[in-house]
Amino acid sequence: MSAAPAPARSSDSTSGESIAEGGTGYSGTTQFGENSALVFQSQDGYASAYIQGIVVEQDGTIVGRYTNGVTLRFAQVAVARFQTQERLAPLGSNLYQETISSGAPIVGVAGEGGNGRIFSNTLELSNVDMAQQFVTMITTQRGPGQQPDHHDRR
Length: 154
Hints:
- β5 and β6 (about 95) form a beta hairpin.
- Among the domains are: about 45-75, no CATH class; about 80-115, no CATH class.
- By secondary structure, the protein is mainly beta.
- It has one helix and seven strands.
- The protein is elongated.
């Protein structure tokens, strides 16, 4: 069984005796009999604010705009391309997987080195199966109407 470690001792002689060592904690302190006064006032940060908007720039940088006028860059979205995109393995639902034939992903910044750009607040053409979406919508709408109505007994 080991002994409990000894309390840390301060080498600063103005801090007084530690309470853990039996002291009061007051020795070594000084108090002046004067009113306190503010000598210097400054702010080293921004005024309080709320996030007002977020934008993704064409290079993938995510920028936040605050109500106090401050704009900060949060992060940057990385994009990947492949040497042979045609050799990616389709997984369905517009998802693809790397293969040996496609090569390893080449990760970089949008708009540089052959990478595409990012367009924020834009709508691209749909990449879903519209026929399947219509079937799902019609099936969902018809579902409640096909249930027997127990309240309407004639």
